[in-house]
Design a protein that fits this description.
about 300 residues; alpha/beta; Inosine-uridine Nucleoside N-ribohydrolase, Chain A; eight-stranded mixed β-sheet; two-stranded antiparallel ribbon; 12 strands; Pyrimidine-specific ribonucleoside hydrolase
């Protein structure tokens, strides 16, 4: 029996890999995609999601545009790691799709109400849409099986010394979802996703494996250039695909349960994830801390190569 799945996303190059993984996995039924500002503007993320799904053979999946800005304070700037259009300047090569007339929160509500089984939602961008959904429709929480969230860093960040990009982009929304709500959450932080990084050789294998693999790797030049420039390393991190992999195969990632906080102050720690790791607690959320790295890479290559 397949698991109904919704991806909330800000494509983004690693988001493109994540969407392909969701679209090509028989264990899940991708019933909807919602878009949010983040790596690039909402206009770009929505266009990218529509084009990617059409190119992946899934134009049937409804795509609804969501929040164009954070809940409270403006996002200081967007990421440039993905190029100006989110896909290394190649978004214009994708088919043009038409967004669902509903906004993201309305589509999320409608899909949850119509679902016969609890739905897994995978937010892989800023958490604004999910915070708005939970605030506006608290009665729908029982329809959510769990949230598999890509975000945060236990040992520091990537956009600042303290904060990972998704949480930093809307700390107030992140705190609402990760701290204040009682929906089951599996948080996939960058500490683990960075360990799951793939090499240029892995990308070459993917490119040669199938048209989908060639399509995905065609979008990677800006991302690869960023990793070469800042880390001196020929490879990249597929942050968001790791979260989708866990949604497809629950338990693929090893988790520990910790209480967490999100720093919403306007200091150098804004957007930081603070996890109490002194002992595993009964409260809190499940935080992914480990996996079979080679096994995960092999799973991604097998699914994305078809």
């Amino acid at each position: 029996m397949t698991t109904p799945l919704i991806v909330d996303t800000d494509p983004g190059i690693d988001d493109a890999f994540a969407l392909a993984l969701a679209a090509h996995s028989p264990e899940v039924d991708l019933i909807g995609v919602t878009t949010v500002f983040g790596n690039v503007s909402l206009e770009h993320t929505t266009r990218n999601a529509l084009g990617l799904l059409a190119a992946l053979g899934r134009p049937d999946v409804p795509v609804a545009a969501g929040a164009a800005r954070p809940l409270v304070h403006p996002q200081p700037h967007v990421s440039r790691a993905h190029g100006d259009d989110g896909l290394s300047g190649l978004a214009h090569t994708l088919p043009v799709g038409t967004a669902d007339p509903r906004d993201a929160v309305t589509l999320l509500r409608d899909l949850l109400l119509a679902a016969e089984r609890p739905v897994t939602i995978v937010p892989i961008g800023p958490l604004t849409n999910i915070a708005l959904l939970l605030a506006a429709h608290p009665g729908l929480k029982e329809k959510i099986d769990r949230l598999v969230v890509m975000g945060g860093g236990l040992a520091g960040g990537n956009i600042t010394a303290a904060a990972e990009f998704n949480l930093w982009s809307d700390p107030e929304a992140a705190r609402r979802v990760l701290v204040d709500e009682d929906v089951p959450v599996t948080l996939v932080p960058m500490d683990l996703t960075q360990r799951c990084a793939v090499t240029a050789q892995w990308l070459d294998l993917l490119s040669a494996s199938s048209p989908t693999g060639a399509l995905l790797t065609s979008f990677t030049p800006a991302y690869l250039a960023t990793y070469r420039r800042f880390l001196g390393w020929d490879g990249m991190v597929l942050h968001d695909a790791v979260a989708v992999a866990e949604a497809i195969r629950p338990g693929l990632l090893t988790t520990a349960r910790h209480p967490v906080e999100v720093d919403c102050a306007h200091g150098p720690g804004r957007g930081a994830l603070i996890a109490d790791r002194r002992l595993e607690a009964q409260g809190g959320i499940d935080v992914a801390v480990d996996t079979d790295l080679d096994g995960l890479r092999a799973f991604l290559l097998e699914r994305l190569g078809h």
